[in-house]
């Protein structure tokens, strides 16, 4: 898998040495191990951010990351282009690229699909290279020591002087790609090893045509058709990306109502409905209430180019010109409390034929092989590291941050967790006592972070939905602004909307929900409104630059305070917009 591109790759074998032998190894390591103030496991945005924060404060830091084997994110010089990049780096780069090129136009000009895809991947690689070079130079400039290899904890031993609980250090071993072990130790260790795509055992992943949300980064051809299983952020993002790249996209969703599936990831009802409508309108086929149960995957002819670190596996030209489709059998997904008889299931089975398949059905924390159990670090049922309000584990001095601690699996929250961990580990006892924060569970706190969904159009939210507000005892109400109600929206994103959720009693804004162009940028102003306890009246009284999307905040606030006037204005605007759209459709083409 390509997960090592973004986070440290873990041991694939379990520790099978007897505990006494490991303790003996720990005693031997102590004498030769290089000592640091902090060891960070994982060189994604969380690990790199934490390493920089500690190093810039004068601490000695060691950053450990695993070698990149797949070649998908290696440049011609063997440089790992994933350094410091989030798991979603490829999808974001691919999304922006898909907005800037027209595959259908290039095909019409006779340009081969191989050439088109090579150019797309080159652009993505260049973006990754810029980020990796910047991170590498910054780490070097502040004196961060870097190791490449597989890391594991060695067990504590009182005689060896490695018991952190007693004020001593933690020993680790880093095994390089050639099998050479290197001992290191520190009083503080941050586990930021990220997550990997969940792989159902029923799916025959081959990392060529049957892919997960990690291995899709190494896709070696431009599919003409693709089926995607999932209804979360990653699945929706890739559905829109491949649609814009000219592929026929089929989205396979277990839920019978796609809008309900999107609401489960936190989206507002109207935002979810708008996204589903856009998916359908753009030509994406949605198979509802189904699951993939059988795959027929023809062989994919490949060839190897280059050698060593520069070796790349490519699909042969014969496949590109005469590809055999993957046949996927679908059957009704079993819903909670319901079962389908064999006869009914057989009748409802269907088969889809596609060039490629992507499973985007969740992620799991990367902890296997680290040896956390040997030092007493507690993990949850999914393997995620259990941490307290300061990101510290059950073992003092060992911290966790980012995807490795579980939901919400966002780079932004992980970076914040890493910064919090670094601040805590280098504070004195009195400062630590004052840092206790009971609202540390980001996954359950809607006020902890904004969420951006990089679909096209974008969607984003922060704070409460109206249902959540009412469930918490607020007299909840909404103010809605349609993008077409402002001039900029009329031109760029007429189908978008911005919604403010507020308490009618106090007027305080409780949540912001957006779908449309620049939603992932606009949400930060909304976040400040909520965090600052601003009211709807405050927003109506502000002055906003003309012809900007920020005018939507004022329109939504006015609509919430005077819904009857807003409905009348919207009816009038709707009639005008319908007339304008009809005139545009019926207008004759202009002559050149």
From TrEMBL:
Gene3D superfamilies membership: 3.30.390.30, FAD/NAD(P)-binding domain (3.50.50.60)
Cofactors named for this entry: FAD
Enzyme Commission numbers on file: 1.6.1.1
Major place of residence: cytoplasm
GO biological process: 2-oxoglutarate metabolic process
Subcellular location: Cytoplasm
Domain of life: Eukaryota
Domain Pyridine nucleotide-disulphide oxidoreductase dimerisation span(s) in chain numbering: 450-554
Cellular-component GO terms for this entry: cytosol
Boundaries of every FAD/NAD(P)-binding domain copy: 36-418
Key words, A-Z: Cytoplasm, FAD, Flavoprotein, NAD, NADP, Oxidoreductase
Region (Disordered): 566-592
Annotated GO MF terms: dihydrolipoyl dehydrogenase (NADH) activity; flavin adenine dinucleotide binding; NAD(P)+ transhydrogenase (Si-specific) activity
Role noted for this protein: Conversion of NADPH, generated by peripheral catabolic pathways, to NADH, which can enter the respiratory chain for energy generation.
Name this protein carries in UniProt: NAD(P)(+) transhydrogenase (Si-specific)
Annotated source species: Octactis speculum
